[in-house]
Design brief:
The chain has 155 residues and is α+β, with helices and mostly antiparallel strands. It contains 5 helices and 7 strands. It has one domain: Gcn5-related N-acetyltransferase (GNAT) (Aminopeptidase). It is globular.
Length: 155
């Protein structure tokens, strides 16, 4: 049975709750756990990013089940800066719904692509969301997979 997901802008007073969710999601993922333990300062959501409407959260039955953050890029495209879902709600469509919402936000900003740098273990998820790998980059956590999703289809 499909769940009803409400996606809305995050509020400044929810910042600490979102950081806790990010910590739980990263710790529950074997591909992220080691990096989180080595870099606890990686759990950060800038207050300005929330205030500018660049952080959205997904509610299920009035409870936050995940969130995503975007950032405009200098080239006019948009970066998916963060995507985290409560571990107990994985594989329920929340992550995909957040990605779809961020794509709409990016289109509204005039971007041609939504970009993301993810861990290589996230390739399957992002592939199902329409992203294509375009390269690798070095991050403070090791090798990152650079992916992008085209937002407009030209015929």
């Amino acid at each position: 049975m499909p769940i009803e997901i409400l996606i809305r802008a995050a509020w400044p007073g929810e910042r600490e709750m979102l950081k806790s969710l990010q910590r739980r999601a990263a710790a529950a993922n074997p591909g992220d756990r080691e990096a989180l333990l080595a870099n606890p300062d990686a759990i950060a959501i800038p207050a300005g990013q929330i205030a500018s409407g660049q952080v959205v959260l997904a509610e299920v039955d009035g409870v936050c089940a995940g969130f995503a953050a975007i950032l405009p890029r200098a080239d006019g495209d948009v970066e998916l800066d963060g995507l985290f879902v409560e571990p107990g709600a994985w594989k329920c469509g929340i992550g995909r719904a957040l990605v779809a919402h961020c794509c709409e936000m990016a289109r509204g900003m005039g971007a041609g692509h939504l970009h993301v740098v993810g861990n290589p273990h996230a390739l399957g998820f992002y592939g199902k969301c329409g992203f294509e790998p375009v390269g690798l980059t070095k991050t403070r956590f090791g090798s990152g997979l650079v992916m992008r999703r085209r937002l407009f289809i030209f015929v």
